[in-house]
Amino acid sequence: MLRLDHLTLQQGDFSLTADLSLPPGSRCALIGPSGAGKSTLLNAIAGFLPPLTGRILWEEKDLTPLAPAARPVAMLFQDGNLFPHLDIARNVALGLKPNLRLTPDDHARVREALARVGLDGLGDRRPGALSGGQQSRAALARVLVQNRPLLLLDEPFAALGPALRAEMLALVRAVVEETGATLLMVTHAPEDARRIADRLILVSDHHAAPPAPITLLDDPTPALRAYLGAD
Amino acid sequence: MHATRGETQAADQFPARRRWTAPAPTHGPGALAGRLAAGAVCLALVLPLAAILWRAATENPASVMGLFRLGPADLAALRFTLWQALLSALISTLLAVPVARALARRRFPGRGFVITLMGAPFLLPVIVAVLALLAVFGRGGLVNEGLTALGLPAIRIYGLHGVVLAHVFFNLPLAVRLILQGWQAIPAERFRLAAQLGLRPAGVFRLLEAPMLRATLPGTALVIFAICLSSFAVALTLGGGPAATTVELAIYQSFRFDFDLTRAAMLALIQLALVAGAALVSLRIGRPAGFGSGLDRPVTRWDADSLPLRLIDGAAIALAAAFLLVPLAVIVLNGIGGLTRLPASLWPATLNSLEVSLAATATTMALALAMALARRTWVETAGLLPLAVSGLVLGTGLFLLVLPFAAPATLALPVTVLVNTLMALPFALRILAPVAARIEAEHGRLADHLGLTGLARLRLLTLPRLRPALGFAAGLTAALAMGDLGVIALFADPQQATLPLQMHRLMGAYQMQAAQGAALVLLALSFGLFWIFDRWGRAGAEA
Asked: Do B181 and B38 reside in the same domain of the chain?
């Protein structure tokens, strides 16, 4: 279980509070106006922003003192998820061994992961030689080998077209169902949230609300309605 | 310039986002290496300067005070140094304006080549350029042959004229690049608006170009003034005599002719004050010299289409290109003939130069890399400090340091490596530091997330991404060290030399053909080293 315990985040003159917990295996969409702090929240969980006050707990273990790489977290950023000078296989393998000293077993796992996301035989290509969708698949292959219990997505598919984005979300869903990971994803599109998530956290007015069932989208609170702008 | 461009690019990629940057390393080998490097650089600057002060103060207690009671020769050197630097700065800057304007508003085949040519003097060994200018403007040179044929009196290249001519040769291109950057900083939309409003060239000049020039020219002139203050090789070859001796040359002369180390130390203090003062002012007001690309983008201009303006621009570009290319062409042509007359003594000198160049490149790159990766302001500032000290001043101090322990001549080459390292370090650091910062801004978060630390981060992220900048900086350093004629002149005995020093000796012995052959060898090696390193850097850059 992920628990944000009386958390306050501050970045410059921006601040955000959260006090909530998320059951294991849940798939949760973070929605809210741009600039509300959705990415900030993910960055804090991933270890890129130390909280001003409060704690971030995973299975009742405090993550706050841990370096980003030591956390039980795999994260995909908005962009820059692959190193452009390394081929896809090496990019994926970084999720296994950050020094890239790989055993034959590691190589096999990388090949397996690439096959799983449909990039069979493309391991020796550099990211620049792949399409946007293929790059997203490669990043997901790394998430697979990282095999962390918590997956954070900071709109990594925002630059893809609707059809491709739906395809990626389906792949993400398959991945988290396979690994049993808890998913926390930022999204701007309610239909994306419906497609994959079973819960939703509304981030607005400097506060991240506790998770609500995804069905809240059909019967929004005033704050959510203000964001959705729906009728 | 380089720095600002790097920062804007990084900022552009994360518009309005709360951008996360990896914290600078606070511990571990990375942070330690940067601090050690910065400490070593400070020590290498402070010790020689302390030795100079000590010498000036103890040997002759009056001499520290005596800075205010300079001898007539010292005063003449000081006056000449300031005067030639002022003239060189003004002439280079003013002549650069029409050339930069022409390059800013014309597209023509070969424009890229002309702009690249404007960067070439940075790599060109000073002594080679001097010999090339002698071949064109000297006693038996092309210009004087033409003048004699027309029955006109010949011009003299030695003395103030020659020194200023050589400085303009080196700094006109630099001024063109700096002013061209100013022109290209004017947004293209402004020129479109001016065309929309039907402004004539005079109006465009008054509204758009004059304000830019007012902002750009003082800084440009100041940078060149500062560079010319510590020009040694030009004064050594084209100056001399009571009327045309710079402070640097006077330092050399008090070593070579009088072996008056106290006077050398005192002159070194004057020179230190001059160069450090100019460096401070130009860092504050002026703009650091940019090396980069980004100058190949011509702006469409609707106001400058008339035939007279085209002719003026064409003439400006043709004259500037000829001023740079004709001497180089002459040196290449004459040099081929001189290759058969090269004395055997040239080859050990060539080998020495290659060793000095490669050793200085290795140490410079190691220091610059460590300091760039530290990403700390004080470390970077330490790396820029050598800009405030001239090579001969450092040489004087090192000579004084070494003298009690060893014959300075035995250390001529190591000292040359050290001084060249310090002189090249600010340039190398300015190339590497912004790129290193950009790599962290773009990829640092992913690397941290994946646990890419220490040597693995260096091997898998930093070095591969830094490679083009490393190659470029190493190429510049190698070329600079290859062509340097400075501190080696203080230390070397007749049995040893670097290639530039050997060339100078050939010129001193009036073996001009052999000197031209040596110049061609030196030119080929300088440009060749740059080309090899730069190409190595680009080879891995397709990603």
From this structure: no
The verdict on a CB contact (< 8 Å) between A128 and B445 is: no
C-alpha B262/C-alpha B254 separation (Å) is 9
Give, to the nearest 10 degrees, the angle between helix B512-539 and helix B126-137: 130
B18 pLDDT more than 90: no
Record: contact B448-A67, CB cut-off 8 A? yes
Q: Which among B14, B446, B455, B542 is the top mutation candidate for probing chain A, defined by the most A β-carbons within 10 Å of its own β-carbon?
A: B446
CATH code, domain with B452: 1.10.3720.10
Segment A136-162 shows an average pLDDT of: 92
Q: Based on the domain organization, do B122 and B89 belong to the same domain?
A: yes
User: Considering all CA atoms of chain A, what is the largest pairwise distance in Å, rounded to the nearest integer?
Assistant: 57
Q: Mind listing the pLDDT tens digit for each residue in B379-422? A: 888 898 898 888 889 999 999 999 889 888 889 999 999 999 99
CA distance B468 to chain A (A): 12
Report CA-CA distances (Å) from B232 to A4, A63, B46, B242.
Answer: 67, 61, 22, 16
Of the two residues B7 and B491, the one the predictor is more confident about is B491
Q: What is the pLDDT of residues A52-86, one digit of tens each?
A: 999 999 999 999 999 999 999 999 998 889 999 99
Q: Considering only CB atoms, which chain A residues are within 8 Å of B453?
A: 69, 98
The verdict on residue B241 lying in a domain is: yes
B108 touches chain A (CB under 8 A): no
* Closest residue on chain B to A127 (Cα): B543
- Give the tens place of pLDDT for each residue, B229-269: 988 999 999 987 778 899 999 999 888 888 888 888 888 88
pLDDT at B63: 53
Are residues B451 and B360 part of one domain?
Answer: yes
Q: How many domains does chain B have?
A: 2
**Residue at token pair 């002149």:** B489
Alpha helices in B451-508 (DSSP H): 454-457, 463-483, 487-491, 499-508
Q: Which of B14, B442, B448, B450 to mutate to test the interface with A (most CBs of A within 10 A)?
A: B450
Give the mean pLDDT of chain B: 85
**Which residues of A sit within 8 Å Cβ distance of B?**
11-12, 14, 39-40, 43, 46-49, 67-70, 73, 75, 77, 80-81, 83-86, 90, 94-95, 98-100, 126-128
* Residues B58, B124 within the same domain: no
Domain boundary among the residues B302, B334, B366 is at B334
b/e for B473-504, b at 16 or more Cβ within 10 A? bbbbbbbbbbbbbbbbbbbbeeebbbbbbbbb
Q: Do B349 and B379 reside in the same domain of the chain? A: yes
* pLDDT tens, residue by residue, B67-114: 555 788 888 999 999 999 999 999 999 999 999 999 988 888 888 888
Which residue bears the tokens 């090192």? B398
B463 has a chain A CB within 8 A of its CB: no
Pairing of strands A182-186, A150-154: parallel
B398 vs B406: CA distance, rounded Å = 12
* Chain A residues near residue B452 by CB distance under 8 angstroms: 69, 94, 98
Residue B20 touches partner A, C-beta closer than 8 Å? yes
Q: Give every CB contact of residue A67 below 8 A, 6+ residues apart in sequence.
A: A47, B448, B451
DSSP-derived secondary structure for B314-336 = HHHHHHHHHHHHHHHHHHHHHHH
Q: Does B342 lie in the same domain as B225?
A: no
CB B251 within 8 A of CB B230: no
Tokens of B243: 């009327």
Q: Residue B23: its chain A contacts at CB < 8 A?
A: none
A11: which strand partners? Answer: A14
| Structure token digits, residue B216 | 């750009």
* Contact partners, residue B69, CB within 8 Å, separation at least 6: B62
Alpha carbon of B53: minimum distance to chain A alpha carbons (Å): 48
